[in-house]
Design brief:
Largest sheet: 8 strands, mixed
Shape: globular
CATH class of the largest domain: Alpha Beta
Number of domains: 3
Structural class: alpha/beta
Radius of gyration: 23 Å
CATH architecture of the largest domain: 3-Layer(aba) Sandwich
Length: 473
C-alpha cells in the first residue's frame, strides 16, 4: 500500500485478535439514534471490556431511545459534552460514523497513544461470512437492498446491515456462518474505518461519486479516497464492480486489485470485465424494473450483475427485480389522496439527489425542499426546480433562504411567476401548503436536496414525519 493513503490510518498496527477488547477500557464516541453506537457499546460489554463509557454531545432527552436499548448494561454515560480525560484514559476509542476524523478529542486520544477504531472495523475483524459491500454517493441503499432481495429469492439467506439505519450490524455476528453472505451499505464515514484495518469486502460495488460531504472533506479527491477502501484491500479471489459512466468510478476500476473487476454502463446497458472491454454483456432485466427514475436503471444493473457473478440464476434475478418495489425514503409512494400522489424522498440530502428525483416524474410537481448545507453548489437543483415544479415549498435550514432566492431568480429568468413558499419551520404547515397547491394528477414530492439537522433528528426522522403527516391527511 502506498504512503499516499496512510493519513487515513488511525491505527498503525491493528490487532486481529478477536479478544482485542477484553479487559480494555473502551470509549464509544457518539451514541446516535440509528443503532451504530448502541451496537458498539453492547458489543464492547459482551466482549468483556473492563469499562465502557459512552459520550455524546446530545443530551439524555434526545438520546433516550438509544439509552433504553442498553438498559441494564454496565455503561457510564457522559452526555451533553465530551471530557478530554475520558479520551486520554481509554485504551480503545470507537468513533461513530458522524464524528469527523479531525475532532480535537480524537487528536488528544492520538497524542496519548490510544487506539481509535470504528464499529465497522470490529465487524470485519470478527465476521466469518462473505461480505458484499455497496458504496456510492447515490444509489447505494437501493442497490444494497435489491441485492439482498435477489439473494433472498435465491434461497441464500443473506443478512443485511451497514448504513441503513436502525440496524445493529455487530448483532448479526452470531448468525453468520462461513458460507453466508452479508450485504452491507457502506457510506464514506464507515469506509474510513476499513482503511484503518486494511480490509475490503469480498464483493464490492461502487455506484458513482458525485459532489457531497464537501463540508467534511478537502476536495472531491479526498471524499473519494475515503470510499476507496471498499476495493483497495481486495485479493485475487475478490470481485469489484464499477460504474463506467462516472469519471471517478471508472478511474477507480483501474486501481482495483481484485481478481475479477467489472464495469457496467447504464447509458449503454452493457457490462464488461476490465481485462476484456470489447466483450460486452447486455443488461437483460430493464423491462422487469418497477422503480421510478432513470438513475435506478444503474442501481438495478449493479445489483443484478453482482448476483450473476456469485451464481444466482437469471430467471431468479428477473423475478426478484420484478417484485422489488423500492426502498423507504427513496421515491417511496406514501399514498394517493384526492388524485394527488405523495412521495417520500427524504434520503435526498444533496442537490444531485433532488435533481434525480425531479427528473423521475412527468406529472405536475409540488416540491418540498430545503434544509442545511454541506457546502455543495445547489444552482443546478434550483434551476431544475424552477423549470419542473409548479410550486416549491421550502423547509427551514441554514441554506434555505439562499436556495429559495435561487429558485425565484431561475423562475424569473424563465418568465415564470414566484414559485416559492416558505421557509417553514412547521412541517405540518408546509405540507398543508403543498396540499393546497397540488391539483388532481399532481405529485407532492419531498426531495429536500439538503441535510435534515435542525428541524429533524436525521433524514429518516424527516421521512417518517412526512409519512405520518400524509397518512393523517
Amino acid at each position: 500500500m502506498s504512503d499516499e493513503h496512510t493519513d487515513w490510518h488511525d491505527v498503525a498496527t491493528t490487532p486481529d485478535d478477536p479478544n482485542a477488547l477484553r479487559g480494555r477500557r473502551v470509549l464509544v464516541m457518539g451514541l446516535g439514534l440509528l443503532g451504530g453506537g448502541v451496537g458498539a457499546a453492547r458489543y464492547a460489554v459482551e466482549q468483556g471490556a473492563a469499562e465502557v463509557v459512552v459520550t455524546d454531545l446530545r443530551g439524555e432527552d434526545v438520546l433516550a431511545p438509544s439509552i433504553a436499548q442498553l438498559a441494564g448494561l454496565p455503561i457510564r454515560y457522559v452526555l451533553g459534552r465530551h471530557d478530554v480525560d475520558d479520551f486520554t484514559r481509554a485504551d480503545v476509542i470507537v468513533r461513530n460514523p458522524n464524528v469527523r476524523r479531525d475532532s480535537p478529542y480524537l487528536a488528544a486520544a492520538h497524542a496519548a497513544g490510544r487506539r481509535v477504531e470504528m464499529e465497522i472495523a470490529w465487524f470485519f475483524r470478527a465476521c466469518r461470512g462473505k461480505i458484499a459491500g455497496v458504496t456510492g454517493t447515490r444509489g447505494k441503499s437501493t442497490t444494497t437492498i435489491l441485492l439482498h432481495h435477489i439473494l433472498s429469492a435465491a434461497g441464500m439467506r443473506p443478512l443485511l446491515g451497514g448504513n441503513l439505519g436502525n440496524i445493529e450490524t455487530l448483532a448479526l455476528l452470531p448468525e453468520i456462518t462461513p458460507d453466508r453472505w452479508v450485504v452491507l451499505e457502506l457510506g464514506n464515514w464507515m469506509l474510513e474505518g476499513l482503511h484503518t484495518i486494511r480490509r475490503s469486502p469480498r464483493l464490492a460495488i461502487f455506484t458513482n461519486l458525485l459532489p457531497d460531504h464537501l463540508n467534511a472533506y478537502d476536495s472531491m479527491a479526498d471524499y473519494g479516497e475515503a470510499k476507496t477502501s471498499i476495493f483497495r484491500y481486495q485479493g485475487a479471489e475478490d470481485i469489484a464492480l464499477f460504474n463506467a459512466d462516472n469519471e471517478y468510478t471508472r478511474s477507480y476500476a483501474d486501481e482495483a486489485p481484485g481478481g475479477a473487476v467489472w464495469l457496467y454502463s447504464p447509458e449503454q446497458r452493457v457490462a464488461f470485465r476490465r481485462d476484456m472491454p470489447n466483450e460486452t454483456q447486455p443488461f437483460a432485466y430493464a423491462d422487469a424494473i418497477r422503480l421510478r427514475g432513470a438513475h435506478n436503471l444503474g442501481n438495478v444493473q449493479a445489483a443484478t450483475l453482482a448476483a450473476e457473478l456469485i451464481g444466482v440464476a437469471p430467471e431468479t434475478i428477473r423475478d426478484a427485480v420484478a417484485s422489488f418495489g423500492g426502498v423507504p425514503h427513496r421515491l417511496e409512494v406514501v399514498r394517493e389522496l384526492d388524485g394527488v400522489t405523495y412521495v417520500n424522498d427524504s434520503a435526498s440530502t444533496a442537490p444531485v439527489a433532488g435533481i434525480a428525483a425531479l427528473r423521475s416524474f412527468a406529472e405536475p410537481l409540488v416540491l418540498i425542499a430545503g434544509g442545511n448545507s454541506k457546502n455543495l453548489d445547489f444552482g443546478d437543483f434550483a434551476r431544475e426546480a424552477a423549470a419542473r415544479a409548479e410550486r416549491v415549498i421550502v423547509l427551514k435550514g441554514n441554506a434555505s433562504d439562499d436556495f429559495a432566492a435561487a429558485v425565484r431568480a431561475e423562475a424569473r429568468a424563465l418568465g415564470r411567476a414566484d414559485l416559492v413558499s416558505g421557509p417553514y419551520d412547521d412541517f405540518a404547515r408546509a405540507l398543508a401548503e403543498a396540499r393546497v397547491a397540488a391539483q388532481p394528477g399532481a405529485v407532492v414530492l419531498l426531495s429536500p436536496g439538503f441535510t435534515s439537522f435542525g428541524m429533524f433528528l436525521h433524514e429518516f426522522d424527516r421521512g417518517d414525519q412526512f409519512r405520518r403527516l400524509v397518512l393523517a391527511l
